[in-house]
Design goal:
With 111 residues, this protein is α+β, with helices and mostly antiparallel strands. 36% of the residues lie in helices and 13% in strands. The protein is elongated, with a radius of gyration of 22 Å.
Length: 111
């Protein structure tokens, strides 16, 4: 006797068919939601500005905690100076957002 089992994934928001699982994390909690192509596109569109401004974290586990004095002071004027110095010295830096540790260390070593 042969059996055919069909698993149909439906969109968690609107119940439409042909959904696929979408995994994401927020505030230290992992989530999965089944979304249709339409709802997945809407989800990606909503996240786009945050993804572009953020930085990807590789690996699993808790983020390292930093003690007092373990990172440089990030005053706005200092960040502008670091960005200008980095651009003049061949480093790739965005106009806004986080400046990598490597750039901060190179800047500190040069000054």
């Amino acid at each position: 006797m042969a059996k055919t089992i069909v698993t149909q994934i439906t969109d968690d928001l609107d119940g439409s068919t042909d959904a696929t699982p979408v995994n994401f994390a927020f505030d230290g909690t992992d989530y999965t939601v089944d979304l249709s192509k339409k709802n997945k596109a809407a989800f990606e569109k909503a996240l786009k500005p945050y993804l572009e401004a953020g930085s990807e974290v590789r690996g699993r586990g808790a983020a390292p905690r930093r003690g007092r004095g373990s990172s440089p002071s990030h005053a706005t004027s200092q960040m502008a100076s670091v960005r200008a110095w980095a651009a003049e010295n061949g480093f790739e830096v965005s106009e806004r957002g986080r400046i990598s540790k490597a750039v901060w260390e190179a800047y500190a070593a040069a000054h």
